[in-house]
Amino acid sequence: MNVFTLIKIRSQLMKSVSLAIIKIKPIVFMVMLSSLLLSGCMKYDLGVNFNSTNNGELVQHIQLSEKITIFSSDYLSQWLKTLENRARTLAGSIERVSPTEIIVKIPFTSAKELQEKFTGFFNTRTSEDSDGSEISNITSTLVAEDTNFFLLSRNHLVYDLDLRSLAMLTTKDDSSIVNLDFSLQTPWGIKNIDNSENAIQPEKHDNQLIWTIKPGAINHIDVVFWLPNFLGIGTLLIIGFVWLGLYLRYTFLPNPSIQ
User: Fold this and answer.
1) Does the predicted model carry a pTM greater than 0.85?
2) In this structure, what DSSP letter does residue 120 have?
3) pLDDT tens digits, 120-140
4) Per residue in 24-76, pLDDT tens?
5) Up-side HSE of residue 62: CA atoms within 13 Å toward CB?
6) How far is CA 25 from CA 12, 16, 29, 32, in A?
7) Is the distance from CB of 199 to CB of 219 less than 8 angstroms?
8) Within 10 A of 175 (CB to CB), how many other CB atoms are there?
9) H helices within 123-252, ranges in order?
10) Of 146, 163, 165, 203, which is the most exposed, with the fewest CB atoms less than 10 Å away?
11) Which residues is 221 bridged to in the sheet?
């Protein structure tokens, strides 16, 4: 999901509510508006799953409440179609679990490809996205690097998301109409690096770390993790089998006689 779309959904929602003001009594309108703003209208989970150095998946799980679908059904249908087209362009797929829940999966084969596909999916703007000043103030960057050590690969991932322009969507008790989570899952342990004042602390669930993104703030995630390099492991096994075959041949079998 493109972060810039969150503002468009909010704007569409507010326009729909504003048009209904003339038909609704003030007290009823205030109750409806409060219920929309003080509770989550969207839950968005962005996950990066690494299976090995050469195999991974970018997973986006989006759940919309009935509140936002009622007021913005036409726009949301167009938005979901845009997500599907972007996913297919990047060799991904989209699963519509229900009218209000979708799962987008985009595969990648290296840290470099992850960075390229992330940028291509999230930082693609249309002419409509350039109309609002709020959108232009949002930045989202992901940098992924890997260093190969033959049998293992050291990976360094940095994710920065500036949502200060979305402060209006957050109340005093940190409630927001949009709930954002970022997760990282690897076969082995992950080391979270807390070297920035904007760093957010994750929750650990086995081999997965989950960060809760804060609307209205700068979010910084910095992690280091190791992955098995199956190409190097396979090469080592082939060398081992060849050496074992030669050892057995010249140790336990007689030399071929020359006629």
Assistant:
1) no
2) H
3) 898 765 555 555 545 456 788
4) 344 333 333 334 444 557 788 999 999 988 899 999 998 887 766 666 667 77
5) 23
6) 21, 16, 6, 11
7) no
8) 14
9) 133-136, 230-252
10) 203
11) 159
